[in-house]
Design brief:
Blueprint: H1 2-9, E1 33-37, E2 54-59, E3 65-69, E4 74-78, E5 85-89, E6 111-117, E7 120-125, E8 130-135, E9 141-146, E10 165-171, E11 174-179, E12 184-189, E13 195-199, E14 221-226, E15 232-236, E16 241-245, E17 252-256, E18 279-282, E19 288-299, E20 306-321, E21 324-329, E22 336-341, E23 347-352, E24 376-377, E25 383-387, E26 392-396, E27 402-406, E28 418-419, E29 430-433, E30 439-443, E31 446-450, E32 456-461, E33 482-487, E34 492-497, E35 502-507, E36 513-517, E37 539-544, E38 550-554, E39 559-563, E40 570-575, E41 585-586, E42 598-600, E43 606-610, E44 613-618, E45 623-626, E46 651-656, E47 662-666, E48 671-675, E49 686-688, E50 693-696, E51 702-704, E52 712-718, E53 726-731, E54 735-736, E55 746-754, E56 764-766, E57 770-774, E58 785-788, E59 793-796, E60 802-805, E61 810-818, E62 825-830, E63 834-835, E64 845-854, E65 861-863, E66 867-872, E67 884-886, E68 891-894, E69 898-902, E70 908-916, E71 923-928, E72 932-935, E73 943-952, E74 959-961, E75 965-969, E76 981-983, E77 989-990, E78 994-999, E79 1010-1016, ...
Parallel strand pairs: 50-57, 59-66, 68-75, 77-83, 85-92, 95-101
Antiparallel strand pairs: 1-48, 2-3, 3-4, 4-5, 6-7, 7-8, 8-9, 10-11, 11-12, 12-13, 14-15, 15-16, 16-17, 18-19, 19-20, 20-21, 21-22, 22-23, 24-25, 25-26, 26-27, 28-32, 29-30, 30-31, 31-32, 33-34, 34-35, 35-36, 37-38, 38-39, 39-40, 41-45, 42-43, 43-44, 44-45, 46-47, 47-48, 49-51, 51-54, 52-53, ...
């Protein structure tokens, strides 16, 4: 929202010249007053306040931190002891005043740099063109330099003219000043005060490097510093460089920045760009620090390279200190001052970042407003104020209290559908209210509505993708900068779209939007014509008069324009002329620069701003007249005086209320100001004391009613009637307390109400006279004597009770207490002589006093003096005793990886672990918060000693310690025990068929150990056919192409020493026979549509049959008409016999369908089937094909499927067991969207179990009509034994070839049960899907889970699916709660796939919304057969789907007690949010997890303990916001540790796009005690990373510049996003090698990430490798990193409606998800799809990478669903060392996109296996939705492996 900030952030780019006096003002006979704002946050903790753009920093001699607030025009001080903030200088008004007086009362304008000098504080008062001095003893302020008229050098500083002095630095013998708007650096001699120029010519630009600095051009120098050598450093902001002037020679040179805005991490300083640098400093080590926009950059002294250290908004001020760097982040919405640890990168916020809303519940004039941008009356008489910087809408009444009615002060959190005070607002800028009290708020995101009845905030307008949309719902339209809104009085809301150059209207009752004015093209035209044809340029303000005419501030045209309510014509009423209106001028001759706001009094008279002043247009005279000073910038003055003398900071909003009072939103002074209408004042009504009252106090409080229009009150009091003496005058309050009245005396009193003193005539009215009599004889009490604490004492917080001696004659006591002197009232009416204040800050200084009130008359008082005391850090008790739990003292033979634990110490905040081999073990790890820790890699045979020290929260020095214990790690690497096969295929398997073998667990294995399986054609295993290495108890293979016997053996391998392998198992035999003959329709015949009268005999459809086995097959071809007369024949175009065919292996046989028989002059529809059967042995699967003919055609339109009345591409049958005889059909609708009747024919495939009702298309579908189509199942035509659910496509085709496609699902009716049905410790192996759901998002997208169960074995698997509902904060659902748990049994046939769409609804029959976990389990003997995959999808309104792949976990996989895992892909800003899913994976016990959020600089933001029940799930939505993260948080880190419980947790984040709900999932990575990413537990070879300290991994493909929609014209392209993190306090180094396959280049880069920090690249190829964002590039990225390094990757595309994409797998090298080398594993992925029409469905690319540097040969195979005995296509590929091969698409590159083989396919299995060579290969499939462009990136992995070594997103 740059318009908001432009007045302040760009202030320093232009010189501001203001004439302070001598301007002829037009008289305005009214007063101006502040009615809201102007309060203070002094005395609060510095971290609780919002800063108005922090800029300069200085450390005072007493240790206090002093900072400047540029936008708030103040200098603030942070007390070093209490951390509380106070104002040192500046009243916040933003003008020039106060020299010679106290600094807090002086006015500054945009103060920037600060510098201590000669006993004073120098302030660069940029907006006033001065350098001012604050005396640190007297606090007197004076001008030290500037303010004069002398433009040049050589004279005294006080006489010189400075233009925007923004930077200060001390040099030898003088002070340097960066005079930004004069484009110079100037020097003031300390001795003489003479001004000279040391750099810059005074001309804007960049030149002069290598020559004298005084001859160089500068481009707006924003900051300066002097380095240790005495050289001058210049931040040349607009030149995008940092420059240096050598002190010895005066020569200038550039030392950083190349003039571009592309930052290059790790580059030399002269080879990188800056976005917009603002500050520079040198630390004690010689490193330079540059504050760039968006990042803080370190330029290393050692090598001159640049490194982005931490994220900032605008680093406007830097202050190096010992080991630290103080940073002022001046970004307006998130301004803060933080301390950066230069060694670790840790950040500590020192000031700023508060939530705002200060003053709620109190007087409006005591509130702190944060840039109020508008003001509007509410129907109940209140006023509404949006705060752009405060992110709130507040409401008040003049003279009353203020409250927040919308917004939280943060952009984090929910936007809509929640109570308004719990909703986050994005820079609220405009406000209006309708007659019903509903409030409307305009912001960059559109317009929201606060419902008066419900209090909820909802979207009212905006949020769409396009600015078009008139006549439709307003929420479907994108609004561009709706800076002003107004209710038009006719049931509509007017919206001024500044960015779209339009005025829109939304009907309040229907929500329909229309355009009132503007074409959307910037310019000026159209006066006299319709407003909708006129050009506007930046409409910023608008209002409506009583007749409905609209007045518009056409800001960039500097005109006020009127839209007639009668005819909608537009005209200019003021502006466009040459005359500046400092005197009355004709309206059309007036020049109106800076026009932004206007208000109508309802009668056509307008008040508007001209620059920072006010003017008025009177239609009766046609004149524009000034209402006060008219200048560009004046600052705020004149409150309480006449409007004619008042000035303003920045006028952003104007409104009249119904009484004619004018209200001004003065954003520059953070106040709402009022000009009240002149009225006749009424008489006040006297309230207390009652007339004639007796016994009244001698100090009574007199009260009276408020009078409308009264400005002040005079009180008359005396013993005469009427009273003649005024005892108080010009009171603003409606009460007065006289003192020292005589006892026993009768007094009379009256009140005179006085109107505006500047109104003519002046109005005043007096009340009636009342009387009262005082009480007789009452003396004041004696002075209270304070007893404890003693004055100046230091006391513990527990002893801070205040006590005093009783006061004689006192009835009650008032106690004042606080951190300021004098202290505020804390308690009143006390009858005791003690008071205990609330919780106090350690080290805090507090003041207190006591006031005694007389028992006889409370007005008689006596006060003590003020005392002070300080809270010291004592009285803290050490933590309670505790003990070590495991391992037992003296334990031996322990594994090298183990978990140690201890009991909880009462009162402990953290624990330190001491561990080592010495008698007194050294400190190993400090700051632990859990009571367990996982240790890895302990030395073999070593005896360790350990103890734990607990530390108290109140005082880390208060400790408790355990005794030292010992344990011994087993000394040698033991040989594991024997194993044997538990499952081998019982019968022979066919050649080319997949199978699985399983074996028993060997004894003596640890985590990280595994097994080696060998296969041979010889019982002697010479030669070995292939080898599989795995950590599981099963392995999958593919039978070779020749029949025979296969011998298998397996043995256990310890990771500690692979040479100490266990014994070989007994041999397992598998018999292989010739594969069963297998024939498929590789292309099905297309449906035929012919026109009436066309010869049927001239029409034909083509199809192909293909033998996918290795031997010729003879088949006969059969056909059958379905409820039709004969209408087709099959012929062989080559002349052969079409009835009996001999099919050669893998040679498609082309055949033709010819049509004849039906009449061609009568419309009709005909259906039939073709099938093939073997002449000899039966086929593996009987293939079927559908034949369809439609006679009668019409002009084409694309038909649309509708299911349940909604456009859809999917339909499903209800579950049914057994035969489908008598089964009820399902109904779908077909809609004809065209202008003519529509004739259609149908196709069904790839499976033919779906049947259409006869005659459905016998007649055309009329234009615009819908026809219901009933669908039936014919299960006898399904592939032999195919799994349920099964899928096929129904395609409707027109004569012109236009098609629509519906995916149809046939469902089984599984056995459903309640409860889990098994004990906590189960023999079955299982998978856990951490989240399954059927829910609807806030954007209206319905997300459902998809589940795939793939069986690689030769026998069916009976899988149980167990659903556990999700838990919440208030309700935990245990996985063994039989009332909540649901269980279903699903049979997965051998070598087949079961795909479950929406299992919660279609399988379990649950009612949405519903979510939870899903356990998938199978008997242990079949566990190795099964693979499970999961995704979450939502249909797109444009067709297709979007969503994300979700990782699936094995039972027991995840985070255990004492271990920690990290996820570094987190985001929370206006574009994205992050949800965290925690799921328990064992069912053994619950787990208590601690979830901690760290920002990108490694600072802890917040944490929360979360309990997860057995098999249960907890989701922390918007987890960054929930844990206290700021909006704009990116590249942070979540750490999850299990604090207690025996459960194990899977942790997954989903990063969700806020505009379209697309998401990417990232799984947690384990972190060891040293902060290293834990090694894979399934890496069996000796991990070379342990020896070298290096971890290798592969990102299979980075991508840049390739079109998201290749077949469309949209310009969107894919890009790769990467994040790099250090998980420990040590720097993590990532060495990257990118192979650019587009250009052939190999590029290496190094990324260095400081300890505990994260660096994110939103386009890694552009930002890190320098490839332009539109330049196509793709290739693999090889990474070598330190063990503490962690990286993640994502492929994304930024569309108009948000960002789409998915996480991209990162492959560990070596790992089990590789094939080749010593393990020829079969890598598999099921569920691929092929679409004939490339504008729908999905496309799948297969990415293959060789990762070891050795060649490898791979076999890629594809298998059809329901027919997995033979592949339908294969291809052998040879990969050179480190080569990447991409099959785009895999179906095309395997030959299935040829004419004779192309068809729609679903649920296709892809396998990849190494068949020769020593190389290692990975395989990834990227599936892209052709409609939405959304991607899924899924690794191929061994069956049932859980993809070890591949991290989703990491």
């Amino acid at each position: 929202m740059t318009r908001f900030r432009s007045a302040r952030l760009d202030l320093l780019r232009v010189a501001i010249v203001v004439a302070a006096t001598g301007l002829p003002f037009a008289a305005s006979a009214q007063s101006i007053l502040s009615v809201a704002g102007g309060g203070t946050d002094d005395g609060r903790l510095a971290t609780e306040v919002r800063l108005g753009e922090a800029f300069g920093l200085v450390r005072m001699p007493d240790g206090a931190l002093v900072l400047s607030e540029m936008a708030a025009h103040r200098i603030r001080r942070v007390d070093p002891a209490t951390c509380r903030i106070s104002t040192l200088a500046g009243n916040g008004i933003g003008t020039f005043a106060g020299d010679g007086g106290p600094a807090p009362a002086a006015s500054f304008s945009n103060p920037t740099a600060l510098l201590l000098h000669d006993g004073g504080l120098l302030v660069a008062d940029a907006g006033n063109g001065r350098v001012r001095r604050v005396d640190l003893v007297t606090l007197e302020v004076s001008t030290w330099a500037g303010g004069g008229d002398a433009p040049g050098d050589g004279g005294p500083a006080r006489s010189a003219r400075f233009s925007c002095p923004v930077g200060l630095a001390r040099t030898s013998g003088g002070i340097l000043v960066a005079d930004a708007c004069a484009f110079r650096i100037r020097r003031i001699d300390a001795a003489t005060g003479v001004v000279t120029t040391v750099a810059g010519t005074g001309e804007y630009g960049f030149s002069g490097d290598g020559g004298p600095a005084t001859a160089a051009r500068l481009g707006n120098p924003r900051a300066i510093a002097v380095d240790r050598a005495g050289d001058l450093l210049i931040v040349d902001t607009c030149a995008l460089r940092i420059r240096r002037v050598k002190a010895a020679t005066g020569i200038i040179e550039t030392i950083a920045g190349d003039g571009s805005q592309v930052f290059r991490e790790g580059a030399l300083a002269l080879e990188t760009g800056f976005l917009a640098p603002y500050s520079v400093a040198e630390d004690a080590d010689g490193n330079l620090w540059a504050g760039d926009t968006g990042r803080l950059v370190r330029i290393a002294a050692a090598d001159g390279r640049v490194h982005a250290v931490t994220q900032v908004g605008i680093a406007s001020g830097l202050l190096p200190e010992a080991g630290k760097l103080l940073v002022a982040d001046g970004l307006s919405l998130a301004s803060e001052v933080f301390q950066l640890d230069r060694a670790t990168g840790a950040r500590v916020r020192l000031a700023g970042g508060g939530a705002g809303g200060i003053g709620d519940g109190g007087p409006a004039t005591a509130a702190v407003l944060a840039f109020p941008y508008d003001v509007a009356p509410a129907p109940d008489g209140g006023l509404l104020v949006p705060e752009v910087d405060g992110l709130r809408v507040r409401k008040f009444r003049p003279g009353g209290t203020i409250e927040t009615i919308a917004g939280t002060g943060s952009t984090d959190g929910p936007r809509y559908g929640v109570p308004a005070t719990a909703a986050s607002l994005a820079q609220p800028a405009a406000v209006a209210a309708d007659a019903a009290g509903n409030v409307y708020v305009g912001s960059p995101e559109g317009v929201v509505r606060l419902d008066a009845s419900s209090g909820l905030l909802t979207r009212f307008a905006g949020g769409g993708e396009s600015n078009a949309g008139d006549g439709g719902p307003a929420t479907a339209v994108h609004l561009s900068a709706p800076w002003k809104i107004a209710v038009d009085g006719r049931g509509g809301l007017l919206i001024a779209e500044f960015g779209a150059n339009r005025v829109r209207r939304v009907d309040l009752s229907t929500g329909i939007i229309s355009t009132v004015a503007g074409t959307g093209v910037a310019g000026f035209s159209g006066d006299g014509g319709p407003a909708t044809a006129a050009r506007l340029n930046g409409p910023a303000g608008l209002d409506v008069d009583a007749n409905g005419n609209i007045y518009l501030a056409d800001s960039s045209n500097s005109r006020i324009r009127k839209i007639s309510a009668v005819d909608g014509a537009i005209s200019t009423v003021a502006g466009g002329g040459p005359v500046y209106p400092t005197v009355p001028v004709r309206a059309v001759e007036a020049q109106l620069p800076g026009l932004w706001s206007l208000a109508s009094d309802g009668m056509g008279r307008l008040v508007f701003n001209v620059g920072a002043g006010l003017a008025r247009f009177d239609p009766a005279t046609g004149l524009v007249s000034p209402l006060g000073p008219i200048q560009a910038y004046l600052g705020m003055t004149g409150d309480g005086g006449p409007l004619s003398a008042a000035t303003f900071g920045s006028i952003r909003g104007l409104r009249f209320d119904s009484s004619g009072n004018l209200f001004v939103a003065d954003g520059g002074s953070n106040r709402i100001r009022a000009v009240f209408a002149c009225v006749t004042v009424g008489a006040p009504s006297l309230s207390v004391p009652a007339d004639g009252a007796t016994g009244t106090s001698t100090g009574p409080t007199l009260t009276w009613s408020s009078v409308a229009g009264a400005f002040r009150y005079d009180v008359y009091l005396g013993t005469t009637n009427p009273p003649t003496t005024a005892v108080a005058t010009d009171l603003a309050a409606t009460n007065f307390t006289p003192v020292n009245l005589q006892p026993g005396t009768k007094y009379s009193w009256k009140v005179v109400a006085k109107g505006d003193p500047y109104c003519v005539p002046f109005s005043s009215t007096e009340s009636v006279v009342r009387s009262f009599t005082t009480i007789a004889g009452c003396a004041a009490p004696s002075t209270p004597s304070l007893t404890a604490p003693a004055d100046g004492a230091k006391v513990p917080a527990a002893a801070a009770t205040l006590t005093w001696a009783a006061s004689s004659g006192a009835g009650t006591y008032d106690v004042s207490f606080g951190a300021t002197n004098p202290p505020p009232l804390a308690a009143s009416g006390l009858t005791s002589t003690s008071f205990t204040p609330p919780a106090l800050d350690v080290g805090g200084l507090y003041y207190w006093s006591v006031l005694a009130r007389a028992a006889c008359d409370p007005a008689k008082t006596a006060s003590s003096g003020v005392r002070s005391f300080r809270i010291e850090g004592v009285g803290c008790f050490p933590p309670g005793a505790f003990s070590l739990s495991a391992p037992a003292d003296g334990a031996t033979g322990l594994p090298p990886d183990l978990t140690i634990s201890w009991t909880t110490s009462q009162g402990a905040a953290s624990y330190d672990l001491y561990l080592g081999l010495t008698a007194s073990p050294p400190l190993y790890l400090s700051g632990l918060t859990s009571t367990a820790l996982a240790l890895r890699g302990l030395a073999a045979g070593a005896t360790y000693r350990w103890k734990v020290v607990a530390r108290a929260a109140c005082d880390p020095a208060a400790v408790a310690a355990t005794p030292v214990r010992t344990f011994t790690v087993r000394g040698t690497c033991a040989t594991p025990g024997a194993t044997g096969f538990t499952f081998l295929p019982p019968g022979a398997i066919g050649t080319g068929q997949g199978y699985v073998v399983a074996w028993s667990a060997a004894s003596g294995l640890d985590a990280g150990d595994g097994y080696v399986v060998e296969r041979s054609t010889s019982p002697s295993f010479s030669p070995v056919l292939d080898t599989v290495t795995t950590s599981t108890l099963f392995a999958s293979f593919v039978a070779p192409a020749s029949a025979g016997s296969l011998y298998h053996r397996v043995r256990a391998i310890p990771a500690c020493d692979p040479e100490k392998a266990g014994p070989w198992s007994p041999t397992g035999l598998v018999s292989v026979t010739a594969a069963t003959p297998n024939v498929v329709f590789s292309r099905a015949p297309e449906a035929m549509v012919v026109a009436l009268g066309d010869r049927l005999e001239d029409q034909k459809s083509l199809f192909t049959l293909e033998n996918v086995t290795s031997s010729p097959i003879q088949v006969f071809l059969g056909r059958q008409e379905l409820s039709s007369p004969p209408f087709f024949t099959v012929t062989d175009p080559s002349g052969g016999d079409a009835a009996v065919l001999t099919l050669e292996p893998h040679v498609p046989k082309l055949l033709e369908v010819h049509y004849s028989g039906p009449r061609n002059d009568v419309a009709g529809a005909y259906q039939g089937v073709i099938f093939a059967a073997s002449v000899g042995a039966g086929l593996a699967v009987t293939p079927w094909a559908y034949v369809s003919l439609k006679v009668g055609s019409s002009p084409d339109a694309v038909p649309e499927f509708r299911v349940n009345g909604v456009a859809s591409e999917y339909a499903a049958f209800p579950g049914l067991n057994g035969s489908d005889t008598g089964r009820a059909p399902i109904s779908v609708d077909v809609f004809n969207p065209g202008p003519s009747p529509l004739e259609l024919a149908a196709e069904v495939g790839p499976e033919l179990w779906l049947s259409l009702e006869p005659g459905w298309n016998s007649a055309p579908i009329p234009a615009g009509a819908t026809r219901t189509l009933r669908l039936y199942t014919r299960r006898m035509r399904a592939p032999n034994g195919s799994a349920l659910p099964r899928y096929t496509y129904l395609t409707l085709r027109t004569r012109g070839g236009k098609t629509s496609r519906l995916l149809v699902q046939d469902n089984d009716a599984p056995l459903l049960s309640a409860g889990r049905g098994a004990s906590a410790v189960r023999p079955e192996a299982s998978f856990l899907v951490p989240s399954v759901a059927h829910v609807t998002s806030a954007l209206g997208n319905t997300f459902v889970s998809r589940l795939s169960l793939s069986n690689a074995g030769t026998e069916a698997v009976q899988a149980e699916l167990v659903f556990t509902p999700a838990s919440s904060d208030s309700s935990l659902v245990d996985g063994f709660d039989s009332t909540a748990i649901r269980r279903a049994t699903v049979v997965v046939p051998p070598n087949d796939l079961v795909r479950l769409s929406d299992p919660l609804v279609l399988l379990f029959g649950l009612t949405p919304p519903v979510s939870g976990t899903l356990e998938v389990r199978a008997p242990s003997s079949r566990a190795g057969f099964l693979s499970v995959a999961s995704s979450v999808d939502a249909p797109s309104v444009k067709g297709g789907t979007f969503g994300f792949a979700l990782p699936v976990f094995r039972s027991g996989q995840g985070i255990r007690a004492g271990s920690t895992a990290a996820i570094t892909a987190v985001a929370f800003d206006s574009a994205e949010r992050t949800n965290l899913i925690l799921a328990e994976t064992t069912g053994v016990d619950s787990a208590l997890a601690k979830v901690s959020l760290y920002d990108r600089d490694g600072r802890l933001v917040g944490s929360e303990n979360v309990s997860v029940p057995r098999w249960g799930q907890r989701q922390l939505s918007s987890v960054v916001w929930r844990l206290g993260g700021d909006s704009g948080s990116r590249a942070g880190r979540l750490e999850i540790s299990v604090e207690s419980g025996g459960g194990t947790l899977a942790a997954v984040t989903t990063v969700v796009d806020n505009f379209n709900d697309d998401a990417a999932a990232f799984s947690a990575r384990a972190v060891d005690a040293q902060g290293s990413a834990a090694k894979s537990l399934r890496t069996l070879k000796p991990v070379w990373a342990k020896a070298t300290g290096t971890v290798k991994s592969l990102v299979p493909a980075l991508v840049n510049g390739y079109r998201t929609f290749p077949a469309a014209s949209e310009p969107f392209t894919f890009r790769s996003v990467m994040g790099f993190s250090s998980l420990s306090t040590r720097e993590a180094v990532f060495r990257l090698t990118y192979y650019d396959l587009a250009s052939g280049a190999t590029v290496s880069r190094e990324v260095r990430v400081p300890g505990r920090r994260t660096v994110e690249y939103t386009n890694v190829l552009e930002q890190l490798f320098g490839i332009g964002q539109d330049v196509p590039s793709q290739g693999p990225l090889f990474v070598e990193s330190d063990p503490q390094g962690l990286l993640w990757c994502r492929v994304a595309s930024s569309l108009a409606q948000g960002t789409i994409g998915d996480s991209f797998p990162v492959v560990a090298i070596p790992s089990e998800s590789l094939t080749g080398g010593s393990s020829s594993s079969v890598l598999v992925l099921d569920g691929l799809e092929q679409s004939v029409d490339r504008s729908r469905g999905t496309r799948s690319n297969l990415i293959l990478n060789e990762v070891s540097g050795r060649p490898v040969s791979l076999l890629v195979s594809l298998y059809e669903a329901g027919n997995r005995s033979s592949p339908i296509a294969t291809r052998q590929l040879f990969l050179d060392p480190l080569e990447k091969v991409q099959l785009s698409t895999v179906f095309s590159d395997l030959g299935l996109d040829q004419d004779g083989r192309r068809k729609d396919r679903t649920n296709v299995l892809c396998t990849v296996q190494a068949i020769s060579g020593d190389g290692l290969a990975s395989a990834i499939v990227t599936t892209i939705d052709n409609r939405t462009g959304d991607t899924r990136n899924i690794p191929l992995a061994p069956s049932a492996s859980g993809a070890p070594g591949v991290s989703i997103g990491f």
